[in-house]
Design brief:
homotetramer, 326 residues, alpha+beta, Chorismate synthase, AroC fold, five-stranded antiparallel β-sheet, four-stranded antiparallel β-sheet, 6 helices, globular
């Protein structure tokens, strides 16, 4: 299933080395101002080549909006869009078509479907995230109109470690923290659709993410109840809020008006610039040679992806909340 | 939305102090043997009073199956079930009806719906999980037929710490690790429906869970690619597997045949056996008095809940996989 | 799948001769006044024994609401309910357990699931509709608050024909027309979720319905464009409406503010009070003997079922419409 | 919501005079042979200009498949596709942007969303059906592999009536009958997802359809039970079937192995080649002048659309059925 969301749904398509990646963002309310130049700039943030740890391909991800936005405003109709794949070099991948790269989806994909597109990982390539960023960028513009702000950042890594990892042909993981400010009280469905459960699903669907936590997260497990209690107070403006935010802006699965704070753990890039032993589809041992261009660390590129997924979930729940009262 | 699942869906209902909790498990294949006594025993594991850290209420959660199982076999029809609420003492909760208990869902629930059932937390009570355990227990029996085994455990806590926490009227969190053995290769939808994304959503929907990770999880973020690489090997029986399991049995969102391993962080119980300052719905300061019987640590009771949610997700994906080929 | 609806969902369970029928109505907004006595009276309209063509069983369908309604108001939580099966006489059905009754679901159900509950048709019995009527009755009360009125009627049949059909041990079909008044402009999703497509699906899901049409329906096919054109006019109150209503209150899949008018064709009851030849599950010819008590015509009993399904669809779309603008 | 289907889902996008129409067909099993030339020929059948009653625009609907099919086979990934809009002449529609054309979706669309794309009806144009035909054409190729055949036909109209209607600038409706042969026993979900309920929803979602019936349909309402009884027989090959097919191949919402037969009533084209009185968005009377090129009768063009929708529903249910047993 390639769809996420309930009212605001995103369905995506595209293989890494096929003609295009794209998607349909459905359920966007009508009459929302969309700045396509700003959208392109947001998508550009995902591009390679921006930071030391990223590879140097210039992907030129030009967004083509095919429907749903007219004269700078949403129509209430589905927003179809695509991004052409321009820099595909299938030949780079021919000899790995029969091999299972460790920590990639080659093996599982082939066993699941009985067939796989070996060109650059096909649909399993992280390139699929470009469609998420386009859709999420549109959602972010809608959230901005509502005074809701999504911001993620790569928790700092030591540049000297990064350089030594790179020099050794190795790779690194990392953590992204995402904060959403200005979320009204009441978003989230309190049973299976808890706001943090939806956020977890969205974040864990980003390639390489191995962990999710919100508020004090895993640290909560080692703390006492008295240590993590977010006491209520009435503020000067009459609003009831909490003094601390161990709960990360969500209680009982519903936003409480405080900042939503979550963290995602990314595994290291699975493609090393070293020889790696593996097996082919017949089980024979083979050695993968280092080649092509690959990121040492994908985490910086993943920042706008995290923001995009957060924006989609928050806006979906914002719309959903409208149905709480008759 | 009180439904989870795609093919195998569970929809639940019930307020803590209403007449009953219950649910409908839909999409169960026909002709699966169900042992209702074994199911009752599984549900009993969730009951209070089993461990030092649990409260002493005897909830007597007798499962009534109302449909979908006949003569010990599933019919392919929806399985309706309920568990009566027998030990409700609403009076215990009357004076907190106007107060917002910190780290509970009182405030968010009331602001979301404009109304709330204050009796024992209403729908926001952890009592709702009994319906999950019933449904998950049925799913587990189906998985057993398939040779798939789900097992969770509370990662050990120091008994002396637990006692001192209890003595101080304080509470504790904890971590549950869950392992699923015997999962065939190929379960999971590789984009938004990655197996671990579905598991994360299911686990994060359990009350008090603040974090989810699978495989090496958050540790992955600090490791190098070469350290976490699960190299492939062909085993003596010809099966291709991995030598290590840093990936936790899932690659690219699809099960790879290794054990699925995940961990969930639970926050400490929010109800202390101490005085707690808070505000009422008008924002006036009030003090909550310790009363009633509450768990010092819910984590031991949550073990079967975790197993239930894992079972539901795995069986749903097992069924979903059948549609991969024509 | 035993669920219908998008925001307002109904999931039902129950076999004809199992312990109970029931369901969960999820997504009802909070704080809606529900009169449970009025609900019981609505459900009673479905009971047997009310008209000449119905059988004489007194089903005593007492509705038990288990959650979601408290102190006369909805809580915003799922409404769980059940109706016990009190008049089950399984013995009546034992000898037909191996036979396929013509125009029943015996054959298809058994081939689909490899198993079937022969007691009174099991889940395939029209008794399942009691859960629809409970849920639809709740939805109708919500619609009344909104000034939306649902009313269905059995298009008249000649009483002398009915009597002669009954005398011959034969059965009859019929047509129900349903009108929904007071629907605001703008309900319905204009592509696959056209309001009339959703109504068609809901109505065609009622047992025995073989046709659906709205507005001029099948007559439209033989008419000219100029004959069925609903010209617009501005009325004295400034409202724009149509002079005629050939379109049945829906244009482009969206309600236009005029009365929604639809008709459903019901097939004759498949159980005759005559000997009927058929085959058993081995293909051997057998003769079914007339027995038990069966309706000559189910259409009068189906009137509240039609109203219930209409109410569920209209309320679901009313809620959905709230998400059209930011 | 612009998505239809459960396992096999189609999501579409596109406004009539925007850059392109398109869609994503998700859930197609892997390794299905797809002949793209045959697909293009199927899509061409929907084109204008083929019959006396159709308009003469040459839409040149060239299908671009962007993903999901590689080397002539499906990959199990979503199939993204588009069809460019090449013959758009927005100027033709400028003066009707403020008017509500009778029996069109102008009024309802504008009131629902507060905004509408007036260019050729925007998303409300029947041009949206091109995406359905592309997806349905792919589904039909899969069904052919399974020995399932979908065929629709326009029930004959008198050519002299058609000519006189055309001469008068008037339009006509019509009926399409669709037959599906080779459907295995057991497709369809017996409660809300009855096979005929799903077919009804799919067919009623086609622009201009005002009625749906299957088997003897509306005639059933006037018949006696004894007249429409499809008696079972065991055939020479041992298969159990029915002697007649009044039930249209579906009993209890589940296919019974006989031909599925259904009929859809189409209303006359709402755009006349005559002056038509209406109102503008301020309620002022205006007169629409005949202009542009419009079909006298859309029914011949709708034949492949009906086949496409039938194919999507049948294949979806074929896949769904795989989950009935463990």
């Amino acid at each position: 299933m390639n769809t996420i969301g309930k009212i605001l749904t995103l369905t995506t398509f595209g293989e890494s080395h096929g003609p295009a990646m794209g998607g349909i963002l459905d359920g966007m309310p009508a009459s929302v101002d969309i700045d396509l130049d700003a959208l392109q700039r947001f998508v550009d943030r995902r591009r390679t080549g921006q930071t030391a740890g990223s590879s140097s391909r210039d992907e030129k991800d030009r967004v083509e909006v095919l429907s749903g936005i007219w004269q700078g405003k949403t129509l209430g109709t589905p927003i179809g869009f695509l991004v052409r794949n321009t820099d595909a070099r299938s030949a780079d991948y021919d000899d790995i078509a029969r091999c299972y790269r460790p920590n990639h989806a080659d093996f599982t994909w082939e066993r699941k479907y009985g067939i796989r597109d070996p060109r650059g990982g096909g649909r399993a390539s992280a390139r699929e995230t470009v469609a998420r960023v386009v859709a999420g960028g549109i959602a972010m513009q809608a959230l901005e109109c509502l005074g809701i702000e999504v911001e993620a950042r790569h928790l700092p890594v030591d540049e000297t470690i990064l350089k030594s990892v790179m020099a050794e042909g190795d790779t690194m993981g990392g953590i992204i923290e995402c904060t959403v400010k200005g979320v009204p009280v009441g978003l989230g469905e309190p049973l299976f659709g808890k706001l943090h459960a939806q956020l977890a699903a969205a974040m864990m669907s980003i390639p390489s993410v191995h962990g999710f936590e919100y508020g004090d997260g895993f640290e909560m497990a080692a703390k006492r109840g008295s240590e993590v209690m977010d006491l209520f107070e009435q503020r000067e403006d009459g609003i009831i809020g909490t003094v601390t935010n161990h709960s990360g802006g969500i209680q009982g699965g519903i936003s409480n008006g405080e900042d939503i704070v979550m963290r995602m753990a990314f595994k290291p890039v699975p493609t090393l610039m070293r020889e790696v032993p593996t097996v082919d589809c017949d089980g024979n041992p083979v050695t993968l040679q280092p080649r092509g261009r690959h990121d040492v660390c994908v985490v910086p590129r993943a920042v706008p992806i995290v923001e995009a997924m957060a924006a989609l979930v928050i806006l979906d729940n914002y719309l959903m909340k409208k149905t709480n009262v008759l």
